[in-house]
Amino acid sequence: MARMSFSDEWIERIAQEIAGDIILSDEPGKVMRKWRERFQVSQKDLAEYLGVSPSVISDYESGRRTSPRIRTIKRMVEALIMIDLNRGGNFINALRKLISPNIPSDILLDIREFQYPVRAVDFCRQLNCEVIANEDILKETMICGYTVVDSIKAILKLTPEQLLRLYGVSPQRAAIFTKVSTGRSPMVAIRIVQIGGGKALKPAVVILHGPKKVDELAIKIAELEKIPLLVSKIETIDELLRRIRSFTPYMQR
Fold it and tell me: Model pTM?
């Protein structure tokens, strides 16, 4: 493997953030797996890039090999970044737009930039969504990527400025909130950000995961802001993330 040269200070900072997340964790293997999956890199591809057996990657992620050395973590992080850059750098570009001010990694569950805009209805169909508000707008909406967040931690930990960046990685984006009870808090937060001057940065689509019934105020805010509001019927967060990551965009004709 060619040694990585960090000519871009933002790429170096991203690498440091990821490596620190792994090193400081009580379960580094699980965090390694989390980042590999966020980069959408298979164990086989990572192992091939590093020149090791896929079983080595599996052993680290499962905890069979405990306490990976800092050098090992550094090589894995560099490999993930280089693989992404060789694929066009979509994930790195998305992270770069979020990294200042910092978004805590336990809030950001997944993020992705598409190579070209895709129909929001196709993406929402992949997530088994029910439309709650603005179905007519949804049919005409294109998205360029998505951000998946832990709604409870986002509301408790993020400042308005961070919320702006979270929603505004690209002009057309799906904001997906997990651990939602009624949808009121995420939609109120979006409304507050818009009042504060973020009108150009609001999400193109909002998808809630978890609520049995959506709060009436949340629906009214969606209607006022003209944001399609949907609820994913997928049962678990793990399955939701799996379905999101398996979504394959295709060029619209």
Answer: 0.68
